[in-house]
Amino acid sequence: MAIRFGTNPIAWSNDDLPELGGDTPLETCLAEASQAGFAGIEKGNKFPTDPAALVDLLGSFGLDFISGWYGAELRRRDAKAELAAMRPHLDLLKACHCEVMVFAETSGTVQGLMDVPVADRPVMAEADWPIFLDRINELGQRMADEGVRIAFHHHMGTVIEAGAEIDRLMEGTGPEVGLLLDTGHLTFAGEDPAAIARRWAHRVNHVHAKDVRPHVLSRARAERWSFLRSVVEGVYTVPGDGCVDFIEALNPLAEVGYRGWLVVEAEQDPAKAHPLTYARLGYRHLAAAAKEAGFQFEPSAESLAGHALRRPARTA
């Protein structure tokens, strides 16, 4: 599959904070995602869970179904139990011909707690690592046998957040466990997305492209904000509106011939950051950066990739 550009509904309505965009109709999200130029979209909590209904609905807006988030608890249950827990979601992805599952280890996570600093996240005990790696290797093989591969999402507030944890995960697993490269979470965690991409480009099977506003990030760290408060205050934004160098982050992927989705995923308060406006800005910047990094992609995206990289005015 050639590289394609997609988005996530979190810019229109937030699954973790339903009050952000909770009254925005799903049809508005899908229509505006299509208007912005995206070819596909990831799952949100307003989406149908019947495969036929989901594909038909997205297709009516010219969108493909990319994948969807799954929060695992492999530190607490074995691979067989995890597979049983994810079965409805896995079957949905299979029925919709998705190639990857957005997969995070969320046991003990603080990502959804408004009053707990993200710095107080859980840390995996040394004795737990071999057990965890064995379980995720087994689960990755079982899922690959069913045609859907793990795209492991390192995430703020979880046990796999820092570069050293990503390295250990990748070093301790086989190719059935792919890496979701998220530029925003890496930057928030104090990592260089380009450095992680250089180390693990050959294992990356999905990309979330979001930018970070450095002045908000500085306050989040200094004042020990929770992850959710950081989101509400605007720590994340779309590509081109923050401090992430997307050309540098995408270069290693282009060099190894990455083929898959580049997904603009920037959770913001839609009352502060008009979703369609930011979706268009993010698409244009990401497409231009991808072209500069050396990617070749579908003609439908070529016109947008020709725009010069620029930084939009900050309104959130």
From TrEMBL:
The keyword Coiled coil does not apply. This is Myo-inosose-2 dehydratase. SUPFAM superfamilies: Xylose isomerase-like (SSF51658). Its EC number is 4.2.1.44. The keyword Phosphoprotein does not apply. Keywords: Lyase. Residues 30-285 form the Xylose isomerase-like TIM barrel domain. It holds the Pfam family AP_endonuc_2. One of its GO terms (molecular function) is myo-inosose-2 dehydratase activity.
